[in-house]
Hints:
The chain is an alpha/beta fold. It has helices at 12-21, 29-39, 51-62, 94-105, 109-116, 155-174, 189-201, 205-208, 217-233, 240-247, 250-264, 274-286, 303-312, 329-346, and strands at residues 72-79, 120-127, 179-185, 269-271, 294-296, 298-300, 318-322. Helix content is 47%, strand content 10%.
Amino acid sequence: MNSFNFQPNGSAFEQEIAAVVSRIAPIEAEYLAQAREYNDSLCKPLGSLGKMEEIRERIWAITRGNPQPFQKAVVVYAGDNGVCQEGVSTNPQDITYKVCLNILSGRSGLGCIAAFYHVEVFLEDLAVLEDVEGHTTYKVRRSTDNMRLGPAMSRDDAAQYVLAGIRRTQELIDSGYNLIGAGEMGVGNTTTSSAVISLLTGVPPEETTGFGSGLTRDGVRHKVNVVRDALAINGPYGDILDAAAKLAGADICAMAGTYLACAANSIPFVLDGVISMAALALARGFHSGILDYAFSSHKTKESGARAVEQAFGLRPMLDLEMRLGEGSGCPLAMNLMECSMFTLGTMASFHDVSVNKQDYVDIREEK
């Protein structure tokens, strides 16, 4: 795995990012122990609720023993990518704008799942070629540049996009949201994700590059070559922000900003598919403690996600063979997290029903 950290320069953008990063602290082991002791006092075979128990333990630790009812939101970051000039997607670029409108209508895949689970959805146009009116507060440019020919954007642009995620997420937190996911929309963003993941995990493009929205096998081979060329032409790489500027899209940078803001505020965040995995890898370059606050929603069919899961030890909650993106896995996971907190918070204990805990074998110790 390649190691990059954050070396802020004197710009106001980077100093603001550094101030947020400085507030991130790892969760404390004593709270994990408290939560596990409580879970083990409930009337059930020890560890029998599996990942549900792990979810409650981590939420307990993140909130330092003071979990609150969840107020749930997914913020979608949209932007076009200059690498589309290389023919890495079968979709025309105006799909980005059209799907943004569909998300705002509430009739996208994400919108319907979120509505079912009472999750609020927000959208920010960061770099879409055509302005999504009313949603351009954080817009810096229209599309990134072609990373196969050179950097996707300037360092200042990348910093502003990370800050867009930080600031928008802080607004949500200040409004009461305490369980947040980040989604994305942007034709070509599985290509930028593959490049970011390859650079930050050390896994070659052949293993991080997938079919995206529906390429042929020849199309995937071409996409691999584009990613390989982009990695080569943009090297050497300095710190993590330099890597972001050269290879990422506006969406990936802003998603990383969301994760940083959540961790700095001791708020859990939920991952979706391969683009969110690239954003997590990017956020980890700013602060390794980010992983304590990350909850992986589902296994995606995109191969690059496997590299991040293996590198960071992520254990997705669900396997539904999904690969839609947009943040569509987040509401599903949020519902399971909410169920876990309710179930384990209200179950009877061994003492309540006069059952002897010693009658149960802790099968976790036999693994």
